[in-house]
Amino acid sequence: MKQVEDAEILSKFNDEKTRNTAFNLLLQKYQQKIYWHIRRLVIDHDDADDIVQETFVKVWKNLHNFRSDSQLYTWIYRIATNESITFLNKKKNRNNISLDEINSELAETLSSSSYFDGDKIQRKLQQAILTLPEKQRIIFNMKYFDDMKYEEISEVLGTTVGALKASFHIAVKKIETILLNQD
């Protein structure tokens, strides 16, 4: 199936008669990418599904305000990232636990998840990623898994390209150290 251009989606969305069609095209184009982006941040499948739904509800409500000064998918990624961070912060506050404890809980969820179909190496990589501070983890995931350019990540996170490169480099070194020191 041919990918529809963002400009066409936006054009259709701005027309009342084709708004639903446009949103369905947007979902077809971005839902899976957004799901995996969120899933790598929150680990749990059910939580990721809920956050994807929240993300696309916000997209639906705010798409008419979208200004084309950024790319559509970086705008959606920003919403998804913010929703994921909000979810993790609420979880941390609700359970009155630290970020380290959240990361430990996420690692435990990863180990016991029936939805994780990765091999032992992928599991070790995911567990190493979970030891990173939140921002480094987000940057690493966007660069490594989503293959986003630094400029795109900069748009999503509102951080300079130089800071992103430094964070990614530090994250890679931490992950390498962890993986090399595992049995």
TrEMBL record:
SUPFAM superfamilies: Sigma2 domain of RNA polymerase sigma factors, Sigma3 and sigma4 domains of RNA polymerase sigma factors
Residue span, RNA polymerase sigma-70 region domain: 26-92
4Fe-4S found in the keyword field: no
Keyword Cytoplasm: no
Assigned keywords, A-Z: DNA-binding, Sigma factor, Transcription, Transcription regulation
Domain RNA polymerase sigma factor 70 region 4 type: 123-174
Highest rank taxon of the organism: Bacteria
NCBIfam families reported for this sequence: sigma70-ECF (TIGR02937)
Family: Belongs to the sigma-70 factor family. ECF subfamily.
Official protein name in the record: RNA polymerase sigma factor
